Amino acid sequence: MQEIVTTTRRPRFRRASEPPAFRLTDDDVVIIRQLARHRFLRSTHIAALDGRSLDRTNDRLSRLFHAGYIDRPRAQLDYYPTAGSAPMVYALADRGARLLIERDGIDFANVEWSRKNRQAGRPFIEHQLEIVDFYVALQRAVARRGNLRLIHPDEIVASFPDQSFSERNPFALRVKISHQGVTHEIGLVPDLVFGLTFADGSRRCFMVEIDRGTMPIARRDIRQTSLERKMHAYLTVHATKQHERQFGWKTFRVLTVTADEHRVRSTLTELRKLRVAGSQGPSLFFFTTRSELCGTDPLSHVWQDGNGRDARLI
Fold it and tell me: What confidence score (pLDDT) does residue 166 get?
């Protein structure tokens, strides 16, 4: 009689009571650092960022999860019943945070990462993943060119003229905007910041906004969030040269990836109404839609500037 061998499948969102044999490697630590930097990553992101095969990446991610170094946010359960083949999403766990504190001396403001992962909702996670989608596409585009170098956010922070910033996010800006004769101070945090260095040593710097289509384009009350208020704040940053004082940049561009073409047109309409003395005006902004950018090279992609003209990043 033929013997039937059964294998026990490990739980997907619950750590196994008897985790597989595991020895932490230097490559594993790289994965943990990536998750600390980006907050949430798909397995496909990690494979692309680290230049390894997806099968090998999935094996190490599974072992890291069951060993307690990384988490699989349960908010994924919202879409796994209908998209079971979707790449798994991972996040830093408490044990992974403690490892980075010991190895790298990272000073986390809060080490309760597992609790934060449980509290993270699907919209927040999906927004973070869309930011990483752009970042990974950008890294691949730069890697295909021999005359460019990507300036990562950590490198930009290290070159700040003033290292005494106390914000948890070093790219956070406090901006005073004038609206109907009244000055309001608002917070502005780009979704992503990066730079490009060219062969001649010149540099271009960019801030990125990933618009998921949930924020109103304009509101009567400037104290409430809107795309118009964000554009107003960026124009004010440029006009007052806050980017020079805080980041050490001569200039910058704001890249906005919107949900659809209708939001591009509506945002351009509101942008052209804004008047901020000393700013670069609508040409400070480049726009595209998620569908137009999907699967393309962000560097050679044809964006649309705030005046409706074609534009490229390089």
Answer: 54
Continuous H helices in the chain? 26-38, 43-50, 54-66, 94-104, 113-119, 122-143, 153-158, 227-239, 242-247, 261-271, 290-293
Q: Tell me: do 260 and 144 sit in the same domain.
A: yes
Sign of the four-CA dihedral 225, 230, 236, 237: positive
N-terminal to C-terminal alpha carbon distance within the chain: 69
HSE (side-chain half, CA atoms, 13 Å) at 88: 20
Q: Based on the domain organization, do 172 and 143 belong to the same domain?
A: yes
The parts of the chain modelled with pLDDT lower than 70 are: 1-11, 19, 77-85, 109-110, 165-168
Closest CA to 294 of 231, 227, 210: 210
Both 63 and 194 in one domain: the answer is no
Which residues constitute the domain of residue 154? 127-311
Q: Looking at the structure, tell me whether residues 42 and 95 fall in a common domain.
A: yes
Helix (H, G, I), strand (E, B) or coil at 49: helix
Measure the CA–CA gap between 70 and 117, rounded to whole angstroms.
10
Shared domain for 88 and 225, answered yes or no, is no
Contact, 246 vs 173, CB < 8 A? yes
Surface-to-core class of residue 8, CB atoms within 10 Å of its CB (0-12 exposed, 13-18 middle, 19+ buried): exposed
Instruction: State the total domains in the chain.
Output: 2
* Six token digits for residue 127: 């927004």
Reference 314, options 82, 112, 108, 149; nearest CA is: 149
